[in-house]
UniProtKB/TrEMBL annotation, chain A:
The keyword NAD does not apply. PANTHER family: UROPLAKIN III, UROPLAKIN-3A. GO terms for biological process: urea transport; water transport. Residues 1-18 form the signal peptide. Keywords: Membrane, Signal, Transmembrane, Transmembrane helix. The lineage of its organism: Eukaryota, Metazoa, Chordata, Craniata, Vertebrata. It comes from the Eukaryota. This is UPK3A protein. The keyword Cell membrane does not apply.
Automatic annotation (TrEMBL), chain B:
Pfam families: Tetraspanin. The chain crosses the membrane at residues 12-37, 57-81, 88-110, 233-255. This is Tetraspanin. It is a multi-pass membrane protein. Its main location: membrane. It is found in: Membrane. The keyword Transmembrane helix applies. It comes from Cephalopterus ornatus. The keyword Lipid metabolism does not apply. It comes from the Eukaryota. CDD domains: uroplakin_I_like_LEL. Coiled coil: none annotated.
Length: 264, 260
C-alpha cells in the first residue's frame, strides 16, 4: 500500500514508472484536457514498462490492442496458440465488439530520455512532445474507406462506449510476443445530447423590466387623467361666471378696463 | 397683480427650460439609437436567427421618437411664449402620442433583453453553424449570417462556443454532421491562430493542450454589447419619459389657466 502511494507520487512528478504490471494509462489530464472525446482516447505511451524484457541487440515494436469492454467476456487474448500476436483489424472484430483489434504499432519509447511535459508550452517543441508522449486511438477518420491504405488502421471509436486497451511488446525479427501489460481500466468515450434538448426558456422576468413597465404605465395613466381634468376644468370654467385670477396668463389685450384714478 | 405676473413668468420659464431639455434629449436619443441600429459589433445576424431581434425594433422606434421630441419641443416653446391655447393643446396631444410610442420602445427593449440567455445562443449555434443543407432561402440566409458572425466572434475575441469548447463535445450539432469528431472536436476557429490564419499546432488544438485552443466561451462578448444596447434604449428612454411627464403636467396646468 505504501509503495503504491510512493509510485503514484513519483508518477505525478512527471517521472515515468518502471513497474511491469502497470496498465495503459490515459494521457495526463493537465496536458490533454479534451480526453476522451466522442470518438477518440489519448493514451500515454508505455514508458519504462517493458525495460526488463528488452535485450540490447534486438529490435522491438509495441502493438496497441483495443477492444470494447463487452468483448472481454468472449475473448480477450491477443496471441494465437504459438505466441504470435493477433493480426485482427477494426473491420474483422466489428470495431472491437468480437475481440481485440490492433490499433497501432510504434517503436519502444525511450525510458532514459522521456519527453518533458513542460515543453508542451513551447511552440517549436510541442509536436515532438505530443508525438513521443501519447498516442491518440481513433485519430484516423479516412483509413477505413481508403482501399489503398496498407498500414495499421486506427479508425474512430464509438461514442458512449467503454473500451479497454493493452500494450504488447513484440520482437521485430521473430515476430513473437515477448511481454504484455494488463488490460487497462475501462475508459468510456463521451456521450452526446441532442441540440433540441437545450432549454431556451428565459426564466423569470427581470426586475428592471417590471420596474420600467409598471412605472411607465402609472405615468401614462396620470397624464391621461391630467389631460381629462384640464379639459373638464377648462370647459367648466368657460361655462361658469367667475374667472380665476391667480396665475392666469393673459393673452394679447386686457379683458376689463381699469378705472383711471387721478390722471393728468 | 405683480405676484400673478411673476408666477406666470416663472412657470413659463420653467416650461421653456423643460422643453429645451426635451429637445436636446430627443436629439441624443436619435443619435444613440442610430448608433445601436448600425450594429457596430455585428451581432444582428445572431439575433435575427434566434427570431428575437426586437431590441432593434425598439431602437428604430427610438430614432423616430427622438426626432418627434425635438420638433414638439420647439412647438411647445412657441406655444408657451405666445400662450396660445390651440398650439398648446396640439402640443399636449402629440406629446402624449409620442410618450406612448417611447413607452412601447422602452418596454420592448427591457422585455426582449430577458430572452437573450446563453442557452438561446447555444441552440442557434448548434443548429445553424455550418449547416450543410438549408431548408429554404430564409434558412440559407440565416445560416450564412450565423456562420460568418460566429467565425468573426471566435477569431476576434479568442473564444470558442457559447460557454466553452465543451459545447461542441456535449451536444450534437449541424457542424458535427459534416465534420467528424476525430478531426474536428471543435471548429478550427477555436484554435489559437498564427499570423497567417492557420492553427499554431493542430494536434495540440484537437487534444485540448492549454495554449493551443481558446478555452473560454464567447457569451461575454455577445452579452456585453447586447446589454449595452438594450439598457441604453430602455433606461435612457425611461429617464426622458419621467422628465416629459413633469413637463406635460406643468403644461396642462398652464393650458388650463389660459384665458380665452
Amino acid at each position: 500500500m505504501c509503495s503504491s502511494w510512493v509510485v503514484a507520487v513519483f508518477c505525478c512528478l512527471g517521472q515515468l514508472c518502471a513497474d511491469q504490471s502497470l496498465k495503459p494509462q490515459i494521457a495526463a489530464p493537465q496536458l490533454a484536457t479534451n480526453n476522451p472525446t466522442l470518438t477518440t482516447v489519448a493514451l500515454e505511451k508505455p514508458f519504462c514498462v517493458f525495460d526488463s524484457s528488452l535485450h540490447p541487440n534486438k529490435s522491438y515494436t509495441i502493438y496497441l490492442y483495443a477492444m470494447k469492454e463487452s468483448a472481454s467476456a468472449t475473448s480477450s487474448l491477443v496471441t494465437d496458440g504459438s505466441s504470435k500476436p493477433l493480426d485482427s483489424t477494426f473491420q474483422q472484430t466489428n470495431g472491437g465488439q468480437l475481440g481485440p483489434y490492433k490499433a497501432a504499432a510504434f517503436h519502444v519509447p525511450s525510458c532514459a530520455t522521456p519527453p518533458r511535459l513542460v515543453d508542451a508550452g513551447d511552440v517549436s517543441k510541442v509536436s515532438d512532445v505530443l508525438k513521443q508522449y501519447l498516442f491518440r486511438v481513433g485519430d484516423d477518420g479516412t483509413c477505413l474507406y481508403d482501399p489503398n491504405f496498407l498500414d495499421v488502421c486506427n479508425p474512430p471509436l464509438a461514442p458512449d462506449t467503454t473500451y479497454r486497451f493493452k500494450y504488447v511488446l513484440i520482437d521485430s525479427t521473430e515476430g513473437t510476443v515477448k511481454d504484455q501489460t494488463l488490460w487497462s481500466d475501462p475508459i468510456k468515450t463521451r456521450r452526446v445530447k441532442h441540440a433540441s434538448q437545450v432549454d431556451t426558456w428565459p426564466g423569470q422576468r427581470s426586475g428592471a423590466m417590471i420596474v420600467i413597465t409598471s412605472i411607465l404605465s402609472v405615468l401614462l395613466f396620470l397624464l391621461l387623467a391630467g389631460i381629462l381634468a384640464a379639459v373638464s376644468w377648462a370647459v367648466r370654467r368657460a361655462e361658469g361666471p367667475s374667472a380665476e385670477a391667480r396665475c392666469t396668463p393673459q393673452t394679447a389685450q386686457p379683458s376689463d378696463p381699469r378705472p383711471e384714478v387721478g390722471s393728468k | 397683480m405683480a405676484k400673478s405676473e411673476d408666477c406666470i413668468h416663472i412657470l413659463q420659464g420653467l416650461l421653456v427650460f423643460g422643453n429645451v431639455v426635451i429637445g436636446m434629449c430627443g436629439i441624443a436619443l436619435t443619435a444613440e439609437c442610430i448608433y445601436f441600429v448600425s450594429d457596430p459589433h455585428g451581432l444582428y445576424p445572431l439575433l435575427e436567427a434566434t427570431e428575437n431581434d426586437d431590441i432593434y425594433a425598439a431602437a428604430w422606434i427610438g430614432i423616430f421618437v427622438g426626432f418627434a421630441l425635438f420638433a414638439l419641443s420647439i412647438l411647445g416653446i412657441i406655444g408657451i411664449i405666445k400662450s396660445d391655447r390651440t398650439l398648446l393643446l396640439v402640443y399636449i396631444i402629440l406629446m402624449l402620442i409620442t410618450f406612448a410610442f417611447e413607452m412601447a420602445s422602452c418596454i420592448t427593449a427591457a422585455t426582449h433583453r430577458d430572452f437573450l440567455t446563453p442557452d438561446l445562443f447555444l441552440k442557434q449555434m448548434l443548429e445553424r453553424y455550418q449547416k450543410a443543407e438549408p431548408a429554404n432561402n430564409n434558412d440559407k440566409w440565416m445560416i450564412e449570417g450565423v456562420t460568418k458572425t460566429w467565425d468573426k466572434l471566435m477569431l476576434q475575441n479568442h473564444c470558442c462556443g457559447v460557454l466553452g469548447p465543451s459545447d461542441w463535445q456535449e451536444y450534437t450539432s449541424a457542424f458535427r454532421f459534416t465534420h467528424n469528431d476525430a478531426d474536428f472536436p471543435w471548429p478550427r476557429k477555436c484554435c489559437v491562430m498564427d499570423a497567417q490564419g492557420l492553427p499554431v499546432n493542430l494536434d495540440g488544438c484537437k487534444l485540448g493542450v492549454p495554449g493551443y485552443y481558446n478555452s473560454n466561451g464567447c457569451y461575454d462578448a455577445i452579452s456585453g454589447p447586447v446589454n449595452t444596447h438594450a439598457w441604453g434604449v430602455a433606461w435612457f428612454g425611461f429617464a426622458i419619459l419621467c422628465w416629459i411627464f413633469c413637463v406635460l403636467l406643468g403644461t396642462m396646468f398652464y393650458w388650463s389657466g389660459i384665458e380665452y
